[in-house]
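Supplementary Note 3. Input sequence used for the single-chain structure prediction.
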Amino acid sequence: MNEVMQQIGAIGIVPVVAIEDAADAVPLGQALTDAGLPCAEITFRTAAAADAIKAMSDAFPDMLVGAGTILTVDQAIAAKAAGSKFIVTPGFDAAVVDWCLANDMPITPGVMTPTDINQALAKGLSLLKFFPAEVAGGIKALKAIGGPYGNVQFIPTGGINATNLPDYLAVPSVQACGGSFMVKKALISAGEFDKIREMAKDAVAIVKAARA
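The predicted structure, written as discrete structure tokens, is reproduced below.
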């Protein structure tokens, strides 16, 4: 496992961010780093994604800033050019995976079935995003699907919140979780970065308690 993914595992929770205005990237990065959560997956669900990644990466070079919801190779190229340190996809896309592997870009592809996992393993990938976690059956489904794959680690994302985060982290195959509960789009757009900082602090405390 590469160093970036090891660092994400040590952090335990990846804020999944949808940001509408790139000008919010730096104050958001400040709030997260102040909270002890120097990590963000900025999703390509908005037109501001690439600019937000660049702004946050430039302002906080040690922060783990990555790109999520990558659907095409062109988006992966744009994410790398903006300074993304890792890429996350909602499903398994062989073309995106192949590009990332060829360009030394850490990638966590989304999986939901054993077939998806088999495709990832065939590419040499063993850290995978279980998505959408809660809709797909939650912890019970994750344990059942991941059971045959003892060497695979997961980052469950989708429906993760402050209440169920400890339960997911207690699953041995879970390296970290992805969640947007501490970085909701409405809070970012409203400039409520103090609230985001406090919610991020709470998330860090939950991870520490779960792993104690």
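The beta strands are 13-17, 39-43, 64-68, 87-88, 107-108, 110-111, 127-130, 153-156, 177-179. The radius of gyration is 16 Å.
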